[in-house]
Design goal:
Helices cover 36% and strands 18% of the residues. The chain contains eleven helices and eleven strands. It starts with a helix and ends with a helix.
């Protein structure tokens, strides 16, 4: 009898232990870190690259290993996808920075930032006082120099922009819309798609035809820093181009406008600003470029290749609808 009781007690203890073990295992599953969902945005923006997440217990953060081809992949050159290079970043709430930069993480903003894809600019005559103040603050030299900025470590890796010597080994001199310009080899194909669509639209659009005939030249690669701030311009990575008009008879850049109009630079009417037709802006955006005219400190001549920001807008705004 005592033997049966002892056996029964042992069996009950075994069952209880097993139940608690299963519950603990289930709890561990439920509390396991989840890889950043935003990685899917990068995967869609850069389809020939891979973004692999591995959790670091030491850093209590995700390590993101990025692998991409050594040279651009195109229909004419598909074999390059077999030759790859890779780098590992700390996720750091979307900043994608090297582990050595973690102590300075407050200096960086996430790579993905809001860009108003599509649509037209708001008329400055309808700005609220809060909006005007936001523009004013954005234009202050002290704010521009000290404020955190979007991390560029990913773009420096993707486009060989970490040094002048490195990027200059990956430049291409191309003819774009009738003008010679030096750009990163990685944006040659996107620009070719933009050009094809614009030239097709030019056949039936007098607005586009007039605009293109008014362009004097284009600026592309230029290894330099942004004025008032100590960080490289994306012209230095060669993924940006500027349209320079023949006649500079309208306001085209916020800084030059501020030098003339003072603190009311942001209230310059749209009709007094030089800007590309929206048909051209839309084509650029649909092919992965953003337009500087939509920034708080606007740069209406400027386009840069940022497919991750276009994809970010599409995914976040689709989810809201």
């Amino acid at each position: 009898m005592r033997f049966k009781s002892a056996l029964l007690i042992t069996l009950l203890l075994f069952i209880i232990t097993a139940i608690f073990a299963d519950e603990k295992l289930e709890d561990n599953k439920n509390t396991q870190p989840i890889p950043p969902q935003e990685l899917e945005i990068f995967r869609k923006a850069f389809p020939h690259s891979t973004f692999t997440a591995t959790y670091s217990e030491k850093l209590e953060d995700w390590l993101i290993t990025v692998s991409c081809p050594t040279t651009p992949v195109s229909a004419a050159n598909p074999a390059t996808s077999s030759k790859r290079r890779e780098i590992t970043f700390c996720w750091c709430k979307g900043r994608l920075i090297p582990e050595t930069e973690l102590k300075r993480k407050s200096h960086y903003l996430p790579v993905l930032e809001e860009y108003p894809f599509g649509g037209e600019l708001q008329s400055p005559s309808t700005y609220t006082q809060a909006q005007i103040e936001k523009y004013r603050q954005a234009g202050l030299a002290s704010a521009r120099k000290n404020e955190p900025f979007a991390s560029q470590f990913l773009s420096d890796f993707m486009y060989y922009g970490s040094s002048r010597k490195s990027v200059e080994q990956h430049l291409a001199r191309i003819k774009f819309l009738g003008h010679k310009v030096t750009v990163n080899e990685w944006i040659v194909d996107p620009l070719a798609r933009v050009e094809k669509r614009i030239l097709e639209e030019q056949k039936t659009s007098t607005v586009i035809d007039t605009f293109l005939k008014g362009i004097d030249h284009m600026d592309g690669y230029n290894w330099r820093e942004i004025r008032d701030v100590e960080r490289k311009s994306l012209h230095g990575t060669a993924i940006a181009i500027d349209f320079i008009p023949i006649k500079m008879n309208k306001y085209i850049y916020w800084r030059w406008t501020k030098d003339i109009r003072g603190d009311k630079w942001m209230l310059t009417p749209l009709k007094s600003r030089w800007m590309p037709p929206y048909e051209i802006i839309n084509i650029f955006e649909e092919e992965g470029f953003i337009w500087g005219g939509k920034w708080l400190i606007w740069d209406n001549m400027h386009f840069e290749y940022r497919p991750e920001l276009i994809e970010f807008y599409k995914q976040t705004h689709t989810e809201k609808q």
